[in-house]
Design brief:
heterodimer, A: 114 residues, mainly beta, 7-stranded mixed β-sheet, 4-stranded antiparallel β-sheet, B: 113 residues, 6-stranded mixed β-sheet
């Protein structure tokens, strides 16, 4: 069965650079969640989209933005990167419109800011 | 918003013993409670979940109980094995517009052979 795809899997950036993380949800899933997970921390909710519209906003910095496109894939854009942005970034998808409760996580993108 | 608390933060048990992890939540509107197992550097994996209309659910060595009145739910792992060693997260999802998931702070479980 198809799973959630994230790219790239690893990314190294310098401070003040920009980064774009991509998420391809499971086919026919209409909801995408983005999480940031620092070492030893629980996943922190950043933002979510349902049917291409932003639905919830969590602890996403103003330097970050995200959107969901017509094909339901989502991108997280991160600007003016800081050392503290180094973390694992997960997206998860869910078939909310069909009553699905479960969110399915992608493998994550490990971002390192030097 | 929702607030999920999880205890203990670390737990060590002997192989074959049981492990129990407890979570409380604050929003009575939350209606879905998943548990995730996460190994180092890997994605969270759903191991069991429960909906608010059910009090208990079991899947082989893993069970979850939910007390809606007290707003707490627990994960029970019996006959623990070394491969159960991982970080476990509870979560709660509300009925709000976005159906956001709120995570507990995690429990690092070590099963000693």
């Amino acid at each position: 069965a198809a799973g959630v795809i994230q790219s790239p899997r690893h990314l190294i950036k310098e401070k003040r650079e920009t980064a774009t993380l991509k998420c391809y949800p499971i086919p026919r899933h209409d909801t995408v969640y983005w999480y940031q997970q620092g070492p030893g921390q629980d996943p922190q909710f950043l933002i979510s989209f349902y049917e291409k519209m932003q639905s919830d906003k969590g602890s996403i910095p103003d330097r970050f933005s995200a959107q969901q496109f017509s094909d339901y894939h989502s991108e997280l854009n991160m600007s003016s990167l800081e050392l503290g942005d180094s973390a694992l970034y997960f997206c998860a998808s869910r078939n909310r419109g069909q009553g699905g409760d479960e969110q399915f996580f992608g493998p994550g993108t490990r971002l390192t800011v030097l | 918003g929702e607030n999920v608390e999880q205890h203990p933060s670390t737990l060590s048990v002997q192989e074959g013993d049981s492990a129990v992890i407890k979570c409380t939540y604050s929003d009575s509107a939350s209606n879905y409670f998943p548990w995730y197992k996460q190994e180092l550097g890997k994605r969270p994996q759903l191991i069991i979940d429960i909906r608010s209309n059910v009090g208990e659910k079991k899947d082989q060595r893993i069970a979850v109980t939910l007390n809606k009145t007290a707003k707490h739910f627990s994960l029970h792992i019996t006959e623990t094995q070394p491969e159960d060693s991982a970080v476990y997260f509870c979560a709660a999802r509300g009925r709000g517009t976005g159906n956001q998931f709120y995570f507990g702070t995690g429990t690092s479980l070590t099963v000693i052979p």
